[in-house]
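Subgroup meeting minutes
Present: P.N., E.W., G.H.
Scribe: E.W.

1. P.N. recapped why we're keeping a running log of single-chain structure predictions: easier to compare across weeks, and new members can see raw inputs and outputs side by side.
2. G.H. added today's entry (223 aa).
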Amino acid sequence: MKNLVFVLGFTLTFCTGHAQLNPEDKLGISYEFGTTHKISENFSISTYSLLWLYEVNDNFNFILLNAGLNYQITPHASGSISYGYSDYDGTIDISSPHTLENRISEHIVYKHHLIKVPLEHRFKVEHRFLRTPTSKQTVTRFRYRIATQLKLSHALFIYLKNEWLLSPNLSNTPENRFNGGLGIHWNKSSTVLLGYFNRNTMNRMNLHRLQVGLFIKTDWRKK
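Output recorded in log:
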């Protein structure tokens, strides 16, 4: 329970707003919704939606819609290929053209235990096709994420994730994303996440957001 109190207290520390229209001074929010549908012993399909707001329930920042095909290579490793579409607004206080993106991604996930702590490693490559009203650009981005879940009870757990992102043809400064909080196994197929998300961008902005997520798993092999 000490871990739970720490995570909740850490999250509530950032629940204050400021008057300036500066992304670093605002508490935003991140909404996630994901589904995974098992279609055979080794294959599954997944969908994922992500919405970022510069302020809680206000001021659009980013949306991503993604769908993928997953293959279970071994009990500890899986691979995936996916397609995503996104819309990005890079400014908080003025009207500016959005950046639209089509992306194709491949990733490998490997899970294991270190002593008794479960760890998950994700290695991801994204081929990004970016478009604005005046330009087009193709960018390759590399991502590595390490994550863990610490069980509190049958239904509750703490989740911690940290990810590094690097786009060499845009910047040699990596982006870092950290999130953590409380997870709730609502039932056998649904999990809710409530926590804090911190994003240090390649432009050296430090953004704080609340995080709300819902993830659903189904088995389409069953009649």
